[in-house]
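Dear all,

This email documents one entry for the complex benchmark we are building for the journal club exercise. For each entry we list the sequence lines for every component of the assembly. Then comes the predicted three-dimensional structure of the complex as a C-alpha cell string, followed by one or two observations. Please use this as the template for your own entries, and keep the labels exactly as they appear.
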Amino acid sequence: MKLEQQFAESADLTIRELTLCSASAIGALVITMEGLVDKQQLAQSVINPLLPYDFGNQSPDEVGQSIFRSVIASADAKAFSTMEELVTYITSGFAVIAVDGASQFCAVGVQGFAFRGVSEPESEVVQRGSREGFSEPLQINMSMIRRRLKSPGLVFEQMTVGSESQTQLMLCYLQTKVSQELLQTLRERLQACDLETVLASGYLSDYLEDEKTSRLFSGVGISERPDAVCGKLTEGRIAVIVDGTPAVILVPRLFVEEFQGVDDYSNRSYYAAFIRFTKYLSFFAAVFLPGLYVALAQFHPEYFPTQLLIQTSESLAKTPFPVMTETLGITLVYEIMKEAGLRIPKSLGHAVSIVGALVIGESAVTAGIISSSTLMVVATAAICSYVTSTLYPPIMVLRFILILVGGLTGLWGITLATAVIIISVCSKSSLGVPYMSSLAPFSLRRMRDVFIRAGWKTLGKHTIRVQKFAETEVRDAD
Amino acid sequence: MQTKTAFSSKRFLLALMLCACSIILLQNDSIAADTSFTSQLIGIFAGLSVCFLLFLPAVYIKTHFDRDVVSLVSDSLPKLKIPVMTVYACYFVYTALYFLLPYTEMFHTKYFPEVSPCLITVLLLVCCVYAALKGVNVISRFGVFLFVFAMVTNFLMFGGSISELDWAHCTFALSGGIGEFFQNVVYFITPAFVIPIFACLSDSTQNFRLRQPIFALLFTGLKYTAVVFFICFALGDYARRQGFQTFLLSRVAHFASFAGIESFYQGLSTMSVFMIVSLLLCGITRSAEEGCRTKAIPLFAALILAGDVIAATNNSVKEILTDPTLFAAVTAAVAAVMPLIGILIGRKSNEQGNLHSIKHTGAAADGLQRLASD
C-alpha cells in the first residue's frame, strides 16, 4: 500500500498477488512496472518456477532465502531490504518479489523495454572503423566498452543523479591509468549536482566545468562512439555514461582533441597530418576570415593585391550598407537559415535551400543589396565552421565579435581581441588540467599527436596520459 | 584569477625574452644615425652584457633562496615589504608609460588620427587588466603563442627584405663617435626592464637555470642584430625617415603581390605591449591578497591611464617619461639595487636563523655552485 501511495496509484505499477505453496500459505507479491519488463521472461524466470515450488514449513524469511537461492531461474537476481532500492529496481525494469513477513526483497532482471538498436552515430561518421554507436540503455553502452577493453582494470562505478529522475550513471575508467585526484574531483562534482531531473548528459556539463574559467569553449567532451571512448580511457580520461542518452561525457577535454578524429588513427599518418592541418586552417578561417575581411576592407584596403582590391571595391561600392553591417547581416541570416534547415521537415528542406541560395543569395547580389565578395567570405567561413563541428558554438560567437571589432577598430582591434581570446582560452582548465595543454603548457613529445599524427610505431612507444601533476600539465607516463 | 601554481621558469623567461625583443619595435630615433653596423653590433653586445650583469643579483636570489625579491623581503624583514613594493610599483607604472606613450602615438599618427590616443590606451588597458587578473602563469602561456607569431612575423619581414639587401655597400668598418656609441649602448640596456619583472614575479616559477636568462639575452641580441643589419644594408636612409621602428622594414617586405606584411609587425608590437603591460600590472599587485588584487589591478591601470593623459597633454612630461637615458638609468638602478637589498637582508636573516622557510638551507656557496654548474 505504501508503494502504491508513493506511485500515486499510477496505472503502470503492476502488483501480482500470489499464494505460495507452503504449510502456512504464505502470500507474496510480484511487483513490476508495465512496459519495462519482458512478460515472457517474467513468466519463465519468476512465475512458473515460483508457483509449483513447495516451501514446506519454512518461515517467511526462509522462504525469501529459498526464492533467491533455489527458485528464481535468472542469472540477474539481487537481494535487498529498503524501499528506496525497491523503487530503483522496479523503475529499472526488474521484477521485485516481496514475501509476506520476510525482511528482504528479491529483484530479478527481466528487463524488456523497447529501445533503439545499435547504429552508426550521425554526428561522428567515419570512413574506416567501427560503425557502432552508443544507444540509450546504460547496460548496452557498458557492454560495448567492455567488449573493446577486456582489461580487468576497467571499472564501472555507479552513481545516481537527479532527485526526481533518479538517473543512473556510470563513471567508467581504467584503474591503472586514471589519476585518482581527477577521479575524486569528478565524484565530488557529480555529487554536488542538485538537479531534480537529468534527462541527458548535457545537463551535467555545467557541473563538470571548472569554476572561474571561461565557458566559451567546453571543457567537457562528448562522444557517441565506443571506440573513441575506449581510446580516451586508455589515456587516463574518465567517461560518464548517463542512462537514457547515447552521448557519453569524457573529461578532461583539451583543445587539441577537437581536431583529432577516429579516422586519423586508421589513415596513413601523412594523410592524417594533412587532415589535421585542414582542420586547424578551417577553424582559423571560420573564426577570423569575416572579421579580417571587414577590417581590411574598411580600414586597410591597400593590403589587398591590386586586382582583388579593384574587384572588391567595385563590388562594395554598389551596396548601400557599410561592409561591417553587410557582413553581420549576412552572417545573421545564415544562422537563421541554418536553424530553419535543422528544424524544418525534410520534405520542405529543398524549398529552404532554394530560397536561401536563389532568393537571399543570388537575388540580393543582383539587386545590389549585398556584395558578392562579402557573400563569398561569409559562405566560406560558414563551411569552414563545420569541419570542426564540436567547436561551432564558440566559432559562431567569436566570429560575430571579431566582425564587430574589425569593423570598429580595424586590424589593431583584431590583434588585441586575438590576444584576449588567447588569454581567455589559456586560462581555461578542464578538471584542473589546462585546456590548452600540449600547446601551452608546451610539450614537445605530445606534438606527435597534435598537428601531425605520428606513425603507430612512434605513438605506441609512449603512452600518453592526462594527469594532474604539480604544474597541472599533461605529461607522458613513461 | 591569479594562480599560486608553480609553473615552468623556462616559459616565464620566454615571455620576458619576447618583451625584451619587442623594444626594437617600439622606440623611435633611438639608434644613433651616424654609427656603422659594426659599431651598433658592439653597442648591442655592450648593452646586453650590462643587462646580464644587472640580472645576476636577481638570479642569485632565485638560485640561492628559490624565491623572488618581494617574498624574500617579506619573509626576512616584513617592515620593508611596503617600501620595496612601492619602489617596484612606481617603477612599473613608469615603465608602462614609457612603452605605452610611443605605442599609442604610433597608432594615433598612422591609423587613427581622428581618434584620441587616450581611447587607444583605454582599450588596451582594459585588455591588459583582464590578462593581469588571469595571472602570470596564463600570460606566460600566452607567450608561447606570441613566440610562434613572432617567429612567423620575423621570417616574413626579414625574408621579404632579403631582395632589398645592398651587398655592394655591405662593409664592416667601424665608424661613429664615442657619444653615438654610448647612445646606442644606453638604448640596448633598455631590455633590462625585464629584470625587475623577473625579480618581482619569479617566486612561483620552478626549475630555474642560469642558462635561461643567458639564452633570453642571446636571442634578444640576435633579434636586434638582424634588425640593425637590415636597417644598415637594406633600408639605409629610408630608415632614418621613419618615425617608428615598426615601420622600418614594412615598405621593403613583400612577397610577390602580397603587401601588408607590416601588419604582422604591428600585430606583434601590439601583442608585445599588451604582454608587457599585463606583466607590469601583475608585478605591481604582486604582494596583494587575492581579494585586493582584483581591485588593485584596475586601480593601477587607472593610474597608468591618468599618467598617459597627463603626458599626452603636457609635452614636457612626455619628453621626460620617454627619455631613453633616464629610463635606462632608472632601470639599472631598480634592477641592481632592489635585489642587492634583498640579498643583504636575506643573508642577515639567514645568519640569524629567521628565514625558516628557505628551501636551500645551505650557505651562499650552494647558490654560487649552482650558478657555476650552469
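Observations: The longest strand of chain A covers residues 154-161. The interface with chain B takes residues 212, 296, 299-300, 302-303, 305-306, 409-413, 415-416, 418-420, 422-424, 426-427, 434, 436, 439-442, 470-472 of chain A (CB under 8 Å).
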